[in-house]
Design brief:
five-stranded antiparallel beta sheet; signal; Peptidylprolyl isomerase; six-stranded antiparallel beta sheet; Chitinase A, domain 3
Length: about 300
Amino acid sequence: MRKFPALILSAGLLLSLAACSTGANAADGCSDITAPGKASESVEVTGDVGGAQTVSFPSPLVADSAELSTVVANDDDEAPVAGFGGIVNVSYSVYDGQTGAAVGSPSTGLIAVSDTLPQGLQDALACSAAGERVALVLPNEDAAKIVSGAPGSIVMVFDVDRTYPNHASGTPQPAQSGFPSVVRDETGRPGITVTSTEAPDAAESALLIEGDGDTVADGDALLVQATSVSYAEPRSTSVNTWEDGSPQLWLASDDTAQTSGSAQPAGIAQFLIGQPVGSQVLVVLPTDDGTSATAWVVDILGVVPPAAG
């Protein structure tokens, strides 16, 4: 068997995540998720969370439906989870339930909690806090969506390193005059209305939501939601991660040699450095010839450690 490559989302510093739904970003829905069962409870895992895993279980291990067990729990009831539509940074291993053999090598990376994933896998990722280890057993119907040619059930063991919401969260700030209007729906998705076609002479920014996380530092890799609207008529959008379902990794640097090939616009990083994680920032960038401009709304979801890229 071979591991289905769509699950492995890490592909360098500036990557685009797989399709991500725009559901809740907290524990909403986590009170009624995939339950543990005899199969998942039989999975034994040793080794520190985040380190090398040694996994054993009786084989063949067969599950008629998905089963999910917590191997190591986070005892902090306030510890955040990604929620459905959020993103997690995990280390994980996959095993053939028929033979107990590992499928491929252990992997580490960012995974979007997307509704394209089997429900049991969504539950495992959406409702686990940082520091937790969970064991998931998927029946063959779902296993075949993850492992090509799976003859039976598969076992997946996840160590959760970090969780990220899918939109900014914090304190809304008063609107500033002279900037485009921004409104948000119940999922946090912003909409931008540009009422002027007169381009600003210089780049400028306004803080829309002030987060309460760590301060963004020069050189940080940032997980962001971003959308843009041109001042020029007719209004056009060059990037919309909400529409694409693809949060992006940007670099808190204006070194174009490092950001080349990404959707990150030149000159925007200076307005993100110094902002707390969880913030939403409106940035207006004029074109090089000064004839027009583009309004960007950026949600700073989190700082991604180097191992996740």
